[in-house]
Amino acid sequence: MKMENSTDFSDPARRIIVALDVSEQEDLVRLVKTLRGSVGMFKVGKELFCSMGPDAVRIVQDHGGEVFLDLKFHDIPNTVAGAVRSSCKLGVSMFTVHASGGEAMMKAACEQARSCAGAPLVIAVTVLTSLDDKDLAMVGLDGPAEKAAVRLGRMAINCGLDGLVASPKELRALRSELGKSPFLVTPGIRPSGYLADDQQRIATPKEAVVNGADFLVIGRPITKAKDPLEAVDAIANDLVQD
Asked: What's the pLDDT score for residue 229?
């Protein structure tokens, strides 16, 4: 059964998932100790996981943080089910699969997650925020990006997933198509005045929430800030401004 979206965001900072795109344990521990209790979760992605393996997840948890495991599983159903089983043993709160892996793969991921104690949220990646319409055409995906995200998102939710990763530019279309229930996890977030870096389809935190985002994945604007906690507070304050 798909989990209903009933998350309490009375504290706007709980929407923030800090992307721990680091490779050194010292940086990992410093960021988690600084920000634990002030943000919703910490994202462990490919850079950190390839550097430290499952220990990265355990270190975040040992220092009081919840983990969003963003490894974007994309393989045959049996292999993905095994990866999900291992993720459950690590006690992660949420993990990602690629919607482009297809229905059988996503259903296998859901079934495995639901069989775990404290089942994590299963979130499908639709269209990477680094891709624009030209990129989609080059890899053979029917665009534009918004149309592709809605198509893949509808398939994922019909397979029983809890939510989607989607860029800020597709949020309104996804909410219109899929309603309030799915969790929408949004990368490509850049506070006003911050460079886009390698992202193509971006928005400010406030724009993303207004357009329907539940969780905001934010990395460099926080992790590279002189004072990461101050950066989190500034983003949270902006979210409650009229």
From this structure: 95
